[in-house]
Amino acid sequence: MLEALTRLDYLLRETWLGLRRGGWMNWAAISTVTILLFLFGSGLQTSWHLERLVNQFGNQLEVSVFLKPGALADEIVPIVREMPEVANLEIVSKEQAWETLIRELGLSDIRGATAQLSGNPLVDELKVLARNPDTVPALVDRLQNLPGVEAVQYLPEVLQRLRELNQGLNWVSLTITTLLTGSAIAVIMTTIRLIVLARDREIEIMQLVGATRAWIYLPFLFQGIAFGVAGAMIAWVLLGTFQQTLGNLLAGQPDFIRFLFSQGSGRGSLHALPDFVLLPLILISFGSVIGLTGSFFAVQRSVR
User: 3-state SS of the chain?
Assistant: First the structure.
């Protein structure tokens, strides 16, 4: 037990000594890792929010039917109610939709806004609730063939666009993360390499007294991990600050936008822990791997 504590104390002291000798290069390595993990965490949070949004919408069976200008909802409603696929029906007049839109935009002068657009540009809408998901495609086909119907929209179209958006953002995030990961590893590798060169004489003395290579170079690996963990913690704090600031700015925005950027439970198909628990774990793990990889390459070059 005493021997293990002595070895741990040695490793911690040597790691701290190496960090002190790194000087400003330490901050170069940590700042590079911080930028990488901040962008990576931002992309990850955006992906989680979009996934949560898709899951939230995926449980609804509502079909939106937009009527042509001049079409009367009272003539179409009886036909829709008789359809066996329909479980419920709600009429949203263009006046109601216009007032709701004006409130969401934060405007108080409804008459002025209407006058500027030369009248209400919206049309009457029917919100049709299907009995089950299997009947939605058939219901949509029947609704589209009704006279007076301009367009029919339902969630699969919206969900598909959200999935495509999420996929595109994931590819962009992956590309940026890959490029910055290479840069972070290179900076950490250079930093550790300089620290090793600064302690070259000490390493030679340790080799002469019988110290193994693993024992000599292990503190340098710990230094690389320290760079990754420090960068991850700073990135986590910056992400939390950014999230809170964005939430304050969007406090008066419509529910859809606030929901998209809200800090939720983060439960999805890929994770079951809250975002505030899972995100730092991922950042610290990723940062540790980057730091360990960079320091390992630096040590390998020094050994050769």
Answer: CHHHHHHHHHHHHHHHHHHHHHCHHHHHHHHHHHHHHHHHHHHHHHHHHHHHHHHHHHCCCEEEEEECCCCCHHHHHHHHHCCCCEEEEEEECHHHHHHHHHHHCCCCCHHHHHHHCCCCCCCCEEEEEECCHHHHHHHHHHHHCCCCEEEEEEHHHHHHHHHHHHHHHHHHHHHHHHHHHHHHHHHHHHHHHHHHHHCHHHHHHHHHCCCCHHHHHHHHHHHHHHHHHHHHHHHHHHHHHHHHHHHHHCCCCCHHHHHHCCCCCCCCCCCCCCHHHHHHHHHHHHHHHHHHHHHHHHHHHHHC
